[in-house]
Amino acid sequence: MKKKKILFTVIVTAVSVLGIFVYSWRTGEVRLSSQDIGISAGQAILIDAHTGRVIYEKSADEKAYPASTTKIMTAMITIQTLEKYDSPIKQKVKVPPGAEGTEGSSIYLKTGEMISIEDLLYGLMLVSGNDSAEALAEIIGGSRENFVDMMNKKAKELGCSGTHFENPSGLFDEKHYTTARDMAVIAAEAMKNRRFRQIVSEDVWHAERENSDYLAFRNKNKTIRQFEGGNGIKIGYTENSGRTLVASAKRGDEEVICVVMSAPDWFNDAYSLMEYGFEML
């Protein structure tokens, strides 16, 4: 027994030095290293969506900037608040002044426009409307500041100690940050909600708007079209944060969630990780 234990230790040490495998003492698994999977991401994590078990990680606790993957939290807070107060998602609301002209990606909201919360959520998650994020923050939170407080409170409840939000959209701010591990926790929580899952898995959504020609929202998250079993959830990009992607896929009873951050080859990174995940489950 002693010889076998020594031999195993030598093997694990040797392959770790060679960069072939990484042994996780926490999970008791041998996993491929980032070099072997071939991902470009600076930070990454892959989890079993049902159990939260980590299948793979790379610098998962390193500070990173979430960009528009922030909107996962924005959508989750919105949906959970509606459900808490039994408020209809199809109700029409008036777009507040702070939403119009928001920097970055947009669904071109106009101040005073009447639009359903449902359409705002699809605009938020499919085409990454920053104006949708600002509108929802004011409508759901009563004020932008209060909504951001709700986001941070939820992050704390989930144990995401490496996360702090400054805005509902993900526009770059030095004080707006997360980690790959925290983002996986947030994503897993959001994906438990039936309404959220329905939204992020939609390919194209047709909004009902009276004074706008922008009605068809096509999901920018290509994983739902390109990866077998792809069912969500959000892409993100700013010049400062780089390319960030939270993706999920379900095959049979198995489901995985991956997060890649600071990832030049974001979609291929996600595909490699999720394929590996299904092989390991």
From TrEMBL:
SUPFAM superfamilies: beta-lactamase/transpeptidase-like. The chain crosses the membrane at residues 7-25. The keyword Lyase does not apply. One of its GO terms (biological process) is peptidoglycan biosynthetic process. Residues 36-264 form the Peptidase S11 D-alanyl-D-alanine carboxypeptidase A N-terminal domain. It comes from Candidatus Allocopromorpha excrementavium. Substrate binds at residue 234. GO terms for molecular function: serine-type D-Ala-D-Ala carboxypeptidase activity. The active site is at residues 68, 71, 128. Belongs to the peptidase S11 family. This is D-alanyl-D-alanine carboxypeptidase. Keywords: Carboxypeptidase, Cell shape, Cell wall biogenesis/degradation, Hydrolase, Membrane, Peptidoglycan synthesis, Protease, Signal, Transmembrane, Transmembrane helix. InterPro entries: Beta-lactam/transpept-like, Peptidase_S11, Peptidase_S11_N. Pfam families: Peptidase_S11.
